[in-house]
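This follows on from our talk about sequence and fold. I would like you to pick a protein and set down its sequence and fold. Go ahead and set the record down below:
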Amino acid sequence: MNKPITGTATAKARAAWGDDLPDWIAKLAQAIDLSSQNKVAERLDYSPAALSQVINNRYKAPLTGIEQAVRGALMAATVACPIVGELAADTCLANQRAPYSPHNPSRIAFFTACRKCENRRDKNAQ
């Protein structure tokens, strides 16, 4: 059984990812080190356990959603939204996740546009 890596999130990420450490995971680890895993998880709308798995290179699901959340919330990345123009990447993800509301014109517009958008986290889902 592997001995768990201890220390900062940055040290864990470097040990787990090695030379292949993506820039956004380094930024995620840095944010956790400067704040806390729980606070960063809340900001990104992911669980602390999911972030731990990402840092330790053990996350089994596709990383695209978490990457988009990190790039938007922590790295100021934007995407071209067909509804509102330039939009923070994490806000785009939040709009994709938001439930449909037949009484809210904005939600209807996002629901319709997000299903076909090139920025969609899961491009295969319809």
Notes: The chain has two domains: 9-75, 78-114. The helical segments are 9-17, 23-34, 37-44, 48-55, 64-75, 89-97, 105-114.
